[in-house]
Amino acid sequence: MCAYFLPSRTGEINAKNALDNRVEIARVRATDMKNSPLTTILLAVLTVSALLSLYLCWLLIAKGRELRSLQATVGQIESNRRLASALAADALEYSKKNAAIDPILEAANLKPKSGAASTNKPGTK
Questions:
Q1: How confident is the model at residue 110 (pLDDT cuts 50, 70, 90)?
Q2: Number of alpha carbons in the 13 Å side-chain half-sphere of residue 54
Q3: What is the average pLDDT across 81-91?
Q4: CA distances from 56 to 48, 51, 59, 64, 70 (A)
Q5: Where do the domains of the chain lie?
Q6: Distance between CA 19 and CA 4 in Å, rounded?
Q7: Which residue, 30, 15, 54, 69, is CA-closest to 4?
């Protein structure tokens, strides 16, 4: 077997390059990969993994679109809330000058009713 190895410069057999330095072509035992069950199993696992990756990618894209849509809706709701709050503050400021708006503000619960008794009672001893 050592006849196939070429000696190195120092005269020792270099096992690291033994296959590269052979005098004749090395023969490797043929394995039947076409009929191997391991090949079939690995191919099935690869297929399932690829399909699962496609599904997860599609799911990520769909949820990203839904998130952007919901963020736009939240932005509109916050804008409407700020607008309503500003309108309520302006209406309360206007009610200081014109008391005719008070029934509308009382109906919207923006201003306490003028005829209502105070709920804060002093403590009795």
A1: confident
A2: 6
A3: 95
A4: 12, 9, 5, 12, 21
A5: 2-28+36-107
A6: 9
A7: 15
Decide: 13 and 7 in contact? Cβ < 8 Å.
Answer: yes
- Among 20, 17, 24, 32, smallest CA distance to 3 is for 24
> Whole-model pTM?
0.51
Residue 89 to residue 57: CA distance in whole angstroms: 48
pLDDT at 21 over 70: no
HSE of 22 in the Cβ direction (CA atoms, 13 Å)? 8
Distance (Å, whole) CA 105 – CA 107:
5
Residue with tokens 């309520």: 88
Who wins on pLDDT, 67 or 98? Answer: 67
CA atoms within 13 A on the CB side of 16: 2
Query: How far is the C-alpha of 52 from the C-alpha of 60, rounded, in Å?
Result: 12
| Tokens matching residue 56 | 């997860």
Q: How far apart are CA 3 and CA 13, in angstroms?
A: 10
pLDDT of residue 43: 94
For residue 53, name the pLDDT band (cuts at 50, 70, 90): very high
